[in-house]
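Q: What would this chain look like folded?
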Amino acid sequence: MLTIEILNTFFQATQVELPFHVYMQNHSLLNQYFKKHSINEQKQHVLRKKK
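A: My prediction, written as C-alpha cells:
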C-alpha cells in the first residue's frame, strides 16, 4: 500500500521511533487524506470527460 510505504520512508528519514498507537493514528489520518484526494481526482476526471 502506498500510504504504508510513504510512512515507512518518512519514519526512516526522520529516524523517529513512535509508539504503535501513534503510528496507527497517523496511518488512519493519512488514509483519510488519500481517500479524499483520490475522490477529488475522480470528480475532476468526470468533469473533464463532460467537457
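The mean pLDDT is 71.
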